[in-house]
Amino acid sequence: MRNFSIILFECVLYNEKLYGYVLKMKTDLSHHISIKTKIMEIDKR
Q1: Residue 31 included in any domain
Q2: Residue 20 located in a structural domain
Q3: Using CA atoms, how far apart are residues 21 and 13, in angstroms rounded to an integer?
Q4: What does the pLDDT look like over 1-45, one tens digit per residue?
């Protein structure tokens, strides 16, 4: 049973890392999109 809790803890830790990575990707992506729209707005002028 002690082993199971260690595995569970490692899973949670891994998911936290994964979630942090996904969150970073999302912010990078939204940042990238906002830059793209700004460039497009400049091109329209």
Answers
A1: yes
A2: yes
A3: 12
A4: 678 888 888 988 898 998 888 889 999 988 888 888 888 888 877
Question: From CA 31, how far away is CA 42, in angstroms rounded?
Answer: 17
DSSP annotation of 1 reads: -
The number of angstroms, rounded, from the C-alpha of 28 to the middle of its chain's C-alpha atoms is 8
For tokens 């990238």, the residue is: 32
Q: How many domains does the chain have?
A: 1
Cα–Cα dist 15/20, whole Å:
8
- Name the pTM for this structure: 0.50
